[in-house]
Specification:
This protein is an alpha/beta fold. The protein has seven helices and 13 strands. A seven-stranded mixed beta sheet has the order 4-3-5-6-7-8-9.
Protein backbone atom coordinates (compact mmCIF):
# COMPACT_ATOMS: atom_id res chain seq x y z
CA UNK A 1 0.00 0.00 0.00
CA UNK A 2 3.03 2.33 0.23
CA UNK A 3 3.85 4.80 -2.53
CA UNK A 4 6.24 3.33 -5.10
CA UNK A 5 6.77 6.71 -6.75
CA UNK A 6 5.26 10.16 -7.15
CA UNK A 7 5.34 11.52 -10.68
CA UNK A 8 4.20 14.96 -11.77
CA UNK A 9 1.85 15.49 -14.68
CA UNK A 10 0.23 18.71 -15.86
CA UNK A 11 -2.53 17.16 -17.94
CA UNK A 12 -4.85 19.75 -19.43
CA UNK A 13 -4.64 22.15 -16.49
CA UNK A 14 -1.03 23.22 -16.98
CA UNK A 15 -0.48 23.12 -13.20
CA UNK A 16 1.74 20.20 -12.16
CA UNK A 17 0.21 17.65 -9.80
CA UNK A 18 1.97 14.74 -8.16
CA UNK A 19 0.33 11.35 -8.76
CA UNK A 20 0.87 8.87 -5.91
CA UNK A 21 1.35 5.41 -7.40
CA UNK A 22 1.49 2.47 -4.98
CA UNK A 23 3.59 -0.69 -5.13
CA UNK A 24 0.45 -2.77 -5.72
CA UNK A 25 -0.43 -0.62 -8.75
CA UNK A 26 3.00 -1.17 -10.30
CA UNK A 27 2.97 -4.88 -9.42
CA UNK A 28 -0.30 -5.37 -11.28
CA UNK A 29 1.03 -3.50 -14.34
CA UNK A 30 4.18 -5.63 -14.46
CA UNK A 31 2.34 -8.93 -14.03
CA UNK A 32 -0.14 -8.06 -16.79
CA UNK A 33 2.39 -6.67 -19.29
CA UNK A 34 4.63 -9.72 -18.83
CA UNK A 35 1.79 -11.83 -20.23
CA UNK A 36 0.41 -9.43 -22.86
CA UNK A 37 1.98 -7.98 -24.98
CA UNK A 38 4.58 -10.22 -23.33
CA UNK A 39 8.22 -10.12 -22.26
CA UNK A 40 10.78 -12.88 -21.57
CA UNK A 41 14.29 -13.17 -20.18
CA UNK A 42 15.69 -13.54 -23.71
CA UNK A 43 14.33 -10.16 -24.84
CA UNK A 44 16.41 -7.03 -25.43
CA UNK A 45 14.54 -3.79 -24.69
CA UNK A 46 15.59 -0.34 -25.87
CA UNK A 47 14.78 2.29 -23.21
CA UNK A 48 14.32 5.69 -24.84
CA UNK A 49 12.12 7.52 -22.34
CA UNK A 50 13.10 10.05 -19.68
CA UNK A 51 12.37 9.04 -16.07
CA UNK A 52 10.08 12.08 -15.87
CA UNK A 53 7.61 10.21 -18.12
CA UNK A 54 5.97 7.23 -16.42
CA UNK A 55 6.20 4.90 -19.42
CA UNK A 56 9.85 4.48 -18.38
CA UNK A 57 8.49 2.02 -15.77
CA UNK A 58 7.80 -0.45 -18.60
CA UNK A 59 11.22 0.16 -20.16
CA UNK A 60 13.26 -0.33 -16.99
CA UNK A 61 11.42 -2.17 -14.21
CA UNK A 62 9.43 -4.53 -16.46
CA UNK A 63 12.46 -6.01 -18.26
CA UNK A 64 14.43 -6.27 -15.03
CA UNK A 65 11.51 -8.14 -13.42
CA UNK A 66 11.84 -10.93 -16.01
CA UNK A 67 15.62 -10.85 -16.42
CA UNK A 68 15.57 -9.25 -19.87
CA UNK A 69 18.34 -6.97 -21.14
CA UNK A 70 17.90 -3.18 -21.10
CA UNK A 71 19.78 -1.00 -23.59
CA UNK A 72 19.80 2.61 -22.38
CA UNK A 73 19.49 5.39 -24.94
CA UNK A 74 20.76 8.76 -23.75
CA UNK A 75 19.17 12.08 -24.61
CA UNK A 76 21.17 12.47 -27.82
CA UNK A 77 20.27 8.95 -28.94
CA UNK A 78 16.55 9.50 -28.31
CA UNK A 79 16.51 12.64 -30.47
CA UNK A 80 18.58 11.26 -33.34
CA UNK A 81 17.03 8.67 -35.64
CA UNK A 82 20.40 7.45 -36.95
CA UNK A 83 21.67 6.84 -33.41
CA UNK A 84 18.46 5.04 -32.47
CA UNK A 85 18.68 2.88 -35.54
CA UNK A 86 22.30 1.99 -34.69
CA UNK A 87 21.31 0.96 -31.17
CA UNK A 88 18.51 -1.28 -32.47
CA UNK A 89 20.81 -2.97 -34.96
CA UNK A 90 23.94 -3.21 -32.81
CA UNK A 91 22.21 -4.69 -29.77
CA UNK A 92 19.62 -6.71 -31.72
CA UNK A 93 16.79 -4.99 -29.87
CA UNK A 94 13.51 -6.90 -30.19
CA UNK A 95 11.18 -4.78 -27.99
CA UNK A 96 10.82 -1.03 -28.18
CA UNK A 97 8.17 1.24 -26.70
CA UNK A 98 7.87 4.82 -27.92
CA UNK A 99 5.51 7.64 -28.75
CA UNK A 100 4.19 7.96 -32.32
CA UNK A 101 6.50 10.94 -32.76
CA UNK A 102 9.57 8.77 -32.14
CA UNK A 103 8.33 6.04 -34.49
CA UNK A 104 7.81 8.68 -37.21
CA UNK A 105 11.31 10.00 -36.59
CA UNK A 106 12.73 6.53 -37.22
CA UNK A 107 10.69 5.88 -40.35
CA UNK A 108 11.44 9.29 -41.86
CA UNK A 109 15.17 8.61 -41.44
CA UNK A 110 14.90 5.65 -43.79
CA UNK A 111 14.73 2.92 -41.12
CA UNK A 112 13.51 -0.24 -42.82
CA UNK A 113 12.50 -2.01 -39.65
CA UNK A 114 13.47 -5.20 -37.89
CA UNK A 115 11.58 -8.44 -38.63
CA UNK A 116 11.75 -9.62 -35.00
CA UNK A 117 10.80 -6.33 -33.33
CA UNK A 118 7.77 -5.96 -31.04
CA UNK A 119 6.75 -2.30 -31.26
CA UNK A 120 4.58 -0.56 -28.66
CA UNK A 121 3.15 2.87 -29.44
CA UNK A 122 1.59 5.02 -26.73
CA UNK A 123 1.33 8.44 -25.15
CA UNK A 124 -0.52 9.83 -28.17
CA UNK A 125 -3.13 8.40 -30.58
CA UNK A 126 -1.70 6.02 -33.17
CA UNK A 127 -2.63 7.42 -36.59
CA UNK A 128 -3.66 5.05 -39.37
CA UNK A 129 -0.94 6.23 -41.75
CA UNK A 130 1.76 5.61 -39.14
CA UNK A 131 0.36 2.16 -38.36
CA UNK A 132 0.34 1.32 -42.08
CA UNK A 133 3.99 2.36 -42.36
CA UNK A 134 5.06 0.46 -39.24
CA UNK A 135 3.27 -2.85 -39.81
CA UNK A 136 5.57 -4.11 -42.61
CA UNK A 137 8.64 -3.13 -40.54
CA UNK A 138 7.95 -5.05 -37.32
CA UNK A 139 6.87 -8.45 -36.06
CA UNK A 140 4.11 -7.05 -33.82
CA UNK A 141 2.57 -3.59 -33.40
CA UNK A 142 0.66 -2.70 -30.23
CA UNK A 143 -1.33 0.42 -29.45
CA UNK A 144 -1.25 1.08 -25.69
CA UNK A 145 -3.28 3.61 -23.69
CA UNK A 146 -3.39 4.86 -20.13
CA UNK A 147 -3.25 7.98 -17.97
CA UNK A 148 -0.54 8.47 -15.34
CA UNK A 149 -3.26 8.21 -12.68
CA UNK A 150 -3.96 4.57 -13.57
CA UNK A 151 -0.30 3.45 -13.65
CA UNK A 152 1.21 3.86 -17.09
CA UNK A 153 -0.99 1.64 -19.31
CA UNK A 154 -4.60 0.56 -18.81
CA UNK A 155 -5.35 -1.10 -22.14
CA UNK A 156 -3.68 -2.55 -25.21
CA UNK A 157 -4.60 -3.54 -28.75
CA UNK A 158 -2.56 -5.51 -31.26
CA UNK A 159 -2.80 -3.74 -34.60
CA UNK A 160 -3.00 -6.11 -37.56
CA UNK A 161 -4.89 -3.97 -40.08
CA UNK A 162 -4.18 -0.27 -40.49
CA UNK A 163 -7.31 0.17 -42.61
CA UNK A 164 -9.55 -0.78 -39.69
CA UNK A 165 -10.22 1.59 -36.76
CA UNK A 166 -7.42 1.48 -34.18
CA UNK A 167 -9.04 1.26 -30.73
CA UNK A 168 -7.37 1.58 -27.34
CA UNK A 169 -8.16 -2.12 -26.95
CA UNK A 170 -8.95 -4.34 -23.99
CA UNK A 171 -8.12 -3.64 -20.34
CA UNK A 172 -5.02 -4.94 -18.60
CA UNK A 173 -5.48 -7.60 -15.91
CA UNK A 174 -7.64 -6.55 -12.96
CA UNK A 175 -8.68 -3.38 -14.82
CA UNK A 176 -12.12 -2.13 -15.84
CA UNK A 177 -12.95 0.40 -18.56
CA UNK A 178 -16.37 2.04 -18.26
CA UNK A 179 -18.03 4.52 -20.62
CA UNK A 180 -20.46 6.59 -18.53
CA UNK A 181 -22.79 9.56 -18.94
CA UNK A 182 -22.98 12.73 -16.84
CA UNK A 183 -24.84 10.76 -14.12
CA UNK A 184 -22.16 8.03 -14.14
CA UNK A 185 -24.51 5.56 -15.76
CA UNK A 186 -23.35 3.27 -18.60
CA UNK A 187 -24.16 4.61 -22.06
CA UNK A 188 -25.50 2.33 -24.82
CA UNK A 189 -23.13 0.97 -27.43
CA UNK A 190 -22.34 3.66 -29.98
CA UNK A 191 -23.21 6.57 -27.66
CA UNK A 192 -20.41 8.92 -26.62
CA UNK A 193 -19.57 9.02 -22.92
CA UNK A 194 -16.62 9.70 -20.64
CA UNK A 195 -14.10 6.94 -20.03
CA UNK A 196 -13.67 5.89 -16.39
CA UNK A 197 -10.99 3.42 -15.31
CA UNK A 198 -11.22 1.13 -12.30
CA UNK A 199 -9.25 -1.72 -10.80
CA UNK A 200 -5.78 -2.40 -9.44
CA UNK A 201 -4.06 0.24 -11.54
CA UNK A 202 -5.92 3.20 -10.01
CA UNK A 203 -3.47 5.33 -8.00
CA UNK A 204 -4.36 6.69 -4.57
CA UNK A 205 -4.70 10.30 -5.66
CA UNK A 206 -2.66 13.49 -5.87
CA UNK A 207 -0.04 14.56 -3.36
CA UNK A 208 -1.41 17.26 -1.04
CA UNK A 209 -4.34 17.96 -3.40
CA UNK A 210 -7.40 16.49 -1.58
CA UNK A 211 -9.97 18.55 -3.50
CA UNK A 212 -8.54 17.56 -6.89
CA UNK A 213 -8.28 13.94 -5.75
CA UNK A 214 -11.97 13.94 -4.78
CA UNK A 215 -12.89 15.45 -8.15
CA UNK A 216 -10.98 12.96 -10.31
CA UNK A 217 -11.01 9.78 -8.18
CA UNK A 218 -14.66 8.98 -7.58
CA UNK A 219 -16.48 5.99 -6.05
CA UNK A 220 -17.99 3.52 -8.50
CA UNK A 221 -21.30 1.69 -8.11
CA UNK A 222 -19.52 -0.96 -6.02
CA UNK A 223 -17.77 1.64 -3.87
CA UNK A 224 -14.38 0.99 -5.46
CA UNK A 225 -12.55 4.05 -6.85
CA UNK A 226 -12.78 5.01 -10.50
CA UNK A 227 -10.55 7.52 -12.25
CA UNK A 228 -12.30 10.05 -14.48
CA UNK A 229 -10.05 10.34 -17.51
CA UNK A 230 -11.84 13.24 -19.21
CA UNK A 231 -11.46 11.28 -22.46
CA UNK A 232 -14.58 10.71 -24.55
Amino acid sequence: EDDAYIIYTSGSTGRPKGVRVRHRNVGNLLASMRRTPGMRAQDVVLAVTTLAFDIAVCELILPLSVGATVVLADRRDAADADRLRALIETHRVNIMQATPATWRLLLESGWRGHPGLKALSGGEPLAADLAAALLPCVAELWNVYGPTETTVWSSHHRVVDADAPIPIGVPLANTRLLVLDAHRQPVPVGVVGELYIGGEGVACGYLNRPELTAERFVPGADGQPLYRTGDL
